[in-house]
Amino acid sequence: MMFQKHLIIKRVYLDYLNREDHIMDITLTPEQSFYAMQEFLEEYFKITSSDALGALLSCMQFLEDGQTADSALWEDWLIILHNKKHITPQQAFEAMRLFLNNYYKNTSSTNIKKLLKSLDDVINNGIEKSTTWSDWMQCVNHVYKLDHSG
Fold it and tell me: What's the confidence (pLDDT) of residue 66?
């Protein structure tokens, strides 16, 4: 009986996580926000096959020792977050924009530039009806649910 009650509570919680009006209430850890960014960039990579983005994604991979392949990227991420322990999806989105802008300065990739423009459009024009924002929130929701499903 206790097991069934646990499953019911878990199902109600997962249903709550799937609601669109809930998603703005969540906060993310630095790790969750990094994984959401990574997932978002992987989806963009599938569309563009950008060499610069592929190189970035390979450096963002976490290794067995808990460090990213390029440890400076993780340190940069924490600096951008000002070492906050929890951030909103919007703060993570804005942090991703800063992170990519720093990366763009070293690559001058046209695909990264296009992505930055898309991110800027969301920041400057709002999230309403933005497919970029919707794609971001799908990644956030996916990462958040993975961390809260067990």
Answer: 86
